[in-house]
Known about the structure:
Blueprint: H1 2-5, H2 8-16, E1 32-36, E2 41-45, H3 55-59, E3 62-63, H4 66-73, H5 96-114, H6 124-131, H7 135-160, H8 168-186, H9 191-210, H10 212-219, H11 225-253, H12 257-277, H13 283-298, H14 306-312, H15 316-333, H16 335-365, H17 370-375, H18 378-405, H19 422-433, H20 441-468, H21 473-502, H22 510-523, H23 526-539
Parallel strand pairs: 1-3
Antiparallel strand pairs: 1-2
Helix pairs in contact: 5-10, 5-11, 5-12, 6-7, 7-9, 7-21, 8-9, 8-12, 10-11, 11-12, 11-18, 15-16, 15-21, 16-20, 16-21, 16-23, 18-20, 19-20, 19-22, 21-22
Amino acid sequence: MDTIRYSFFGEICHYLSGGRMFRYPDQAPGFKYIFESDDSPITFETPENVEKNSAENSRSRSTVNPEEEAKEEGNDPTLIGWYGPDDPEDPHNWSNLKKTFVIVQICFITVSLYMGSSIYTPGVAELTEDFGISTVVATIPLCVYVLGYGIGQMIAAPLSEIPAIGRNWVYMPTAFIFVVLQVPTALSKNIGSLIVLRFICGLLCSPALSNGAASLGDFLPPHYVPYGIAIWGGTAVFGPVLGPLLGGVFAQVLGWRWTFWFMLWISALSFGLIFFFLPETYGPTILSRRAARLRRSTGNPSLTTKGDLDFAAVTTGAMVQENLIRPFIISFTEPGVLMLNIYVGFMYAVMYTWFEAFPIVFVEMHHFNLIENGLTYIGLLMGCATSCAIYLYLIGHYMVPWIVAGVRPEKLFKLSFAFAPLLPISMIFFGWTGTPNIHWIVPVIASSTFGVGGFVVFQVIFNYLGLSYPRYLASVFAGNGLFRSFMAAAFPLFARQLFVKLGPSKFPVGFGSTVLAGIGLVLACMPYFFYHAGHLMRVRSKYAN
């Protein structure tokens, strides 16, 4: 019941019932909010049943810690904070079971919406026949979906950090509309409507991708945040990989439209779960709603929170500068950020080009059906799962001790030395084993090698950016998300031509994979470069620490 009270469903019921349903502890009759000032206690008390100050009512009162309040909020009794260090509404005080349940929900909504990018790709051949279009045009719905969630992150992330809005008021409406739009998407009559709907769906799924890691950081202790982000990042990779696997089943048996009907089911299930059970995780939002309740119950209009005051002082121009302009400035004027954005974007783009390469190798060369072709993506899935397990070990034994010891952020790249070369190796391995004369399991193993290398490198780069640019973290990550989404959206448009036009019929993806491997080999030198010279760029930067 406590979990439901703080969920989106509980908030709506509480509001519509005028505060009678799912009442909060500070709405109990006789509740007292006592601020221990330097001179004398200042008490805000609910007017209802004020005369009944019994021992039972006394037990419901909460006292602010004077030392913490004076330090954090300037000894101002109008600023509402936590009811002491053990306040159960503080997300950091949730039980381990509740935190785990919240992590599961965030990971599930991420997987269910993220798989929408690639789930329809097994039905591209049927789509081209139904609409009378080329394969390249049929690939555009994949590209605009990826482009949509890249652009959407620029809006969703800053909105969720407004105290009056928070995480859930960004998650819920967008997820609900996403569910509804799967119906017209499945019923699309032409490629134009499909492209438009897919772009909108990409925009709507962006909160799960942009705010997932931030939600975990709202309640996990600092030394556990890397573990949580690693697990969440693994599920973010599983989504696009699971898409063709599940989509192949529906496309083979029922047709390409049923891939979107499945998206309707899975997204509705994930929306229902978070609607009833996902509590608000953003501390400033929880306090902002607490202050609003106390204003109503005490009749004191001056009660507010530090987060509300800070946001009220931010101008519209400053918000535009920070959320829309600064990400571009940092991405293109900071050499280190630009180089790492290109590296991450390339890895991301290669993963999406394989949605074009796999059908060439396994359907056209090995004559797999759509279901069998979907199963070949298990190689990528297993590679990412293995890499996630390895990375969790590296966090505990190397990364966290290094960070605690205050080493230079560049030392983190040492963890990726053994993994960066796996990316170009896997592309060469996959390209020249994708032939009928070699067993199909060999290119599947090659794709798993990419998953092993890519995940660790990806996570190391993100941790490095977080440690190097803590003052402008939102801008750096927003720019990175937009950068990699643009690259991933562009590559599938020319991927098939890259493979088919360059490669001989016996090795249809050999030369195209070699071109990608050559680029990947150059980029694989970046961890070594940053390990030795990254600090030189960082000390010259006006944004980095």
